UniProtKB/TrEMBL annotation:
Gene3D superfamilies cross-referenced by the UniProt entry: Mannitol-specific EII, Chain A (3.40.930.10), PRD domain (1.10.1790.10), Winged helix-like DNA-binding domain superfamily/Winged helix DNA-binding domain (1.10.10.10)
GO biological process: regulation of DNA-templated transcription
Protein name: HTH domain-containing protein
PROSITE patterns reported in the protein's UniProt record: PRD_2, PTS_EIIA_TYPE_2
InterPro entries: BglG_antiterminators, HTH_11, PRD, PRD_sf, PTrfase/Anion_transptr, PTS_EIIA_type-2_dom, WH-like_DNA-bd_sf, WH_DNA-bd_sf
Domain PTS EIIA type-2 stretches: 478-621
Entry keywords, A to Z: Repeat, Transcription, Transcription regulation
Domain PRD: 287-394
One Pfam match: HTH_11
Recorded superkingdom: Bacteria
Keyword Repeat: yes
Length: 621
């Protein structure tokens, strides 16, 4: 429970069953009457059982019932963990379990369990901090000042912004550290300084910056500043460092607190992880970076070669990716959390680019001995997506095949040009001229039956009537985005399984598909970032290539939902990259995303019983 909530209850309990005005409570806690109203609403909803704070518009508030029945949710670990760490960071020495329990209104036994759980989490994450416990003295946080602050920030979420304003959210978390006016001052200073740079930040980004700076002000006020033992002082001239200095120098005067160069750099790295600056005209500006830059360049070129990208054709985009990686390495080496509110959307909409980004991240981790989190992989994906789009003809190439009447072909061409500006028509051919099709054509639209269709090297064949109706145009629209799966998925690679977990399903699928040797590589890829794309669909794949000449897809429809990453899955698309990784399969992944944009597609596919039904549902409107 928040410290202010406890004090409000204590004050009302001592008022001898008399009403206390909202303005009196607001003045007592140095907040607005609106904040008091929100606090009391939250206390009544989440903490009181057989007692309630009664409100009267004329008189104010009073406590009705026995305060001993106050409800504390023993399962609400995250809130307690935040308050435990915040309390430890409010102290400069040891604090006993009994003192912690008294401050947080929980039993000593509950607090001991929470601290033990926190200790295990810190150990598992290999953080450079520890919970130090000494008998008869108590506990304290020991270790890197940077990681102490980052641990507390990790326990603050932006979910509160769904029900309260930004300054109310800050007051909710840190109202016992600073007055409402001080918090509003911090918020105003930050907003004014970033406005000078014409930065359009979301409320979540502003909230994150405010939270980090409030923690820094508190720690600096306790003379617990970041020092050489916590962080190397890198000689950088990033634009984010200039913004950090402007904000902290101003707040130092306003809040009567001192900041050093390490504090400026700490905020700079936080701003880098938030990606607040536009990417135009960025250059690498730091000291002694040649060795790191060369390593990053070699990794990028290695991945470029693997996927057939041209460094010369994409030189500007290549440099943009190089700058992004080199810059991001600074906060990543200190385990600064990367915030990416679009990660789910990126993973589902840019599947091919995301998979390449995972490969790039794996190579960077191995080469630089640094961990690259999923959110950062998301930012790498955006760079790679630009490169993919720049490396290929953006319009889809198709050929038109007609029967005996070339006028039918001309009419079809005119309608396609009208309806689909993203399509490039590479020629009209009679059905006896299919041998003249240009190389690289993936799709044909035909008004007649093609007897040797299986011999054509095309992925998609769309049949329409010679009347070329609006219904035909709808068919073309659907098939352009739904026809590739048939090209990649053979009838023998669709399986109906009933496995209980992810491990067993992958073992069964790789066994049936005769690719058991790829099981380990598939698991390694899954550890980097879950391949669950939502809507009960997962798309696992190995880091390694197969012996297949084209992309191979195996589909498993499982009888029961199983946990895949942090979400459930029931339809599994296991795809095996071709031996020639230079083949671009972006269109296929776009098809997957397009199909599962239909909210009921998963339900339909779960009811199919064979390959033909699967493709029929897949291609349905």
């Amino acid at each position: 429970m928040k410290n202010r909530y406890i004090k409000i209850l204590e004050h009302l309990a001592q008022s001898d069953n008399e009403f206390v005005s909202g303005s009196e409570l607001a003045n007592l806690f140095n907040v607005t009457t609106r904040t008091i109203r929100n606090d009391i609403r939250e206390i009544n909803a989440n903490y009181l059982d057989k007692v309630i704070i009664a409100g009267n518009t004329q008189k104010g508030y009073k406590l009705v019932g026995d305060l001993s029945t106050i409800h504390q949710n023993e399962d609400d670990y995250e809130e307690r963990a935040f308050n435990i760490i915040k309390t430890l960071l409010s102290e400069t020495d040891f604090i006993t379990y009994d003192e912690l329990a008294k401050k947080l209104y929980f039993s000593t036994q509950t607090i001991r369990k929470d601290v033990q759980k926190l200790f295990q989490i810190i150990q598992a994450e290999k953080r450079n901090i520890e919970v130090e416990a000494i008998i008869f003295q108590g506990i304290r946080l020991k270790g890197s000042e940077v990681e102490k602050r980052l641990l507390l920030k990790k326990l603050v979420t932006t979910n509160c912004l769904k029900r309260m304003s930004l300054d109310e959210g800050l007051q909710y978390y840190f109202g016992d550290w600073f007055s409402q006016s001080s918090i509003q001052l911090v918020y105003s200073c930050i907003e004014e300084e970033v406005t000078k740079y014409n930065l359009l930040l979301s409320s979540q980004e502003l909230f994150s910056i405010c939270v980090n700076i409030i923690i820094s002000i508190k720690r600096a006020g306790l003379n617990q500043k970041i020092a050489e033992k916590d962080m190397r002082l890198d000689n950088t001239s990033f634009e984010e460092l200039k913004i950090a200095k402007l904000i902290l120098i101003r707040l130092a005067k306003e809040m009567n607190v001192q900041f050093n160069e390490y504090e400026y750099q700490y905020l700079c790295y936080l701003l880098i992880t938030l990606q607040i600056l536009p990417k135009n005209n960025e250059v690498i500006e730091h000291e002694h970076s040649d060795e790191i830059e060369e390593k990053v360049k070699s990794v990028i070129k290695k991945v470029w070669t693997r996927y057939g990208f041209s460094s010369r054709k994409n030189e500007k985009l290549f440099n943009g990716l190089l700058v992004h990686i080199t810059k991001s390495l600074y906060p990543l080496k200190y385990y600064f959390p990367v915030e990416n509110p679009f990660i789910s959307q990126i993973k589902s909409e840019y599947l091919n680019a995301y998979n390449i980004a995972v490969v790039l991240a794996k190579e960077l981790q191995f080469c630089l001995n640094i961990k690259i989190p999923e959110n950062e992989i998301g930012y790498l994906t955006l760079h790679i997506m630009n490169i993919i789009e720049n490396s290929q003809e953006t319009r889809k190439r198709i050929a038109i095949i007609y029967g005996k009447n070339p006028l039918v072909g001309k009419l079809l061409e005119r309608k396609i040009n009208l309806y689909f500006p993203n399509i490039k028509i590479d020629g009209l051919f009679a059905n006896h001229e299919t041998h003249l099709l240009p190389e690289g054509i993936e799709t044909i639209v035909t008004t007649s039956e093609i007897f040797e269709e299986q011999h054509l090297n095309v992925k998609n064949c769309i049949r329409v009537s010679e009347m070329i109706t609006n219904e035909d145009m709808k068919t073309i629209s659907i098939q352009l985005n739904r026809g590739l799966l048939k090209y990649y998925l053979s009838p023998n690679d669709l399986y109906f399984l009933d496995e209980e977990n992810q491990k067993d399903l992958l073992k069964a699928l790789t066994k049936f598909g005769d690719i058991q040797h790829m099981y380990t590589s598939i698991n390694e890829r899954e550890k980097m970032s879950s391949t669950n794309i939502g809507n009960l669909v997962a798309m696992p794949h190995p880091f390694d290539c197969g012996n297949n000449k084209k992309l191979r897809v195996l589909v498993a429809i499982n009888k029961q939902k199983i946990l895949w990453g942090d979400k459930m899955a029931q339809i599994i698309f296991l795809f095996i990259p071709p031996k020639n990784q230079k083949v671009n399969n972006t269109n296929f992944f776009e098809e997957i995303h397009d199909v599962f944009k239909q909210t009921n597609m998963t339900e339909k596919l779960l009811n199919v019983t064979n390959y033909d039904e699967f493709l029929e549902v897949w291609s349905s409107k």
